[in-house]
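Researcher: For the annotation table, I need structure tokens for L-rhamnose mutarotase. Please keep the output clean. Sequence:
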Amino acid sequence: MIKKAVRMKLYPGFKEEYARRHNELWPEMRQMLNDHGAISYSIFLDPETDYLFGYLEIEDEVKWAETADTTINRKWWDFMADVMETNSDNSPVAVDLEQVFEL
């Protein structure tokens, strides 16, 4: 199992909408994540800064990287682009975080 962490940025005032969309995650998106080796995926919000912290456990880096090129993932990015910072292709602006401790 590979542990990954990423930081993203939510636009101010969109906490409830962001959570609602994820609570109603499309079945085909959930299936794609499973098919590409996502063991678990959690997202946390710092309400003071609107930074999102994503924590993932995946099976394989190469398999996981392929998620970016799936049609359903691109559709999801487009769907989420109005509530968070994105790149020109609507992918989230994301910073990989470095693990510095584990108990």
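Researcher: And a one-line annotation?
Model: The chain has a mean pLDDT of 97.
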